[in-house]
Design brief:
85 residues; mainly alpha; 4 helices
Length: 85
């Protein structure tokens, strides 16, 4: 779904392109950090007390599960659990 008019999209892109590459990088990095904090809190609310390894695993699955096959996902999450303790 896209409810943004083409004129607004063009203006927004122009505004972003006026920023330096470093400014755009910092902006994107900050947004990712904010998203990660929100997702971590959501996981904690759903799962209660969890270990750091469990949090890392769940965070990975929330962000990247759709990018891997079930087999790949199982191998990656097993690795995270083993190496995060």
């Amino acid at each position: 779904m896209n409810d943004t008019s083409m004129a607004v999209e063009i203006r927004y892109r122009e505004m972003l392109m006026r920023l330096s590459p470093l400014q755009r990088f910092h902006m994107a990095s900050g947004m990712f950090t904010d998203a990660k904090i929100l997702v971590e809190e959501s996981i904690r609310q759903q799962m209660g007390q969890i270990t750091d390894a469990e949090l890392k695993t769940e965070l990975f699955k929330r962000f990247y599960a759709c990018d891997f096959s079930e087999t790949e996902l199982a191998a990656i999450t097993a690795h995270l659990k083993f190496h995060s303790s």
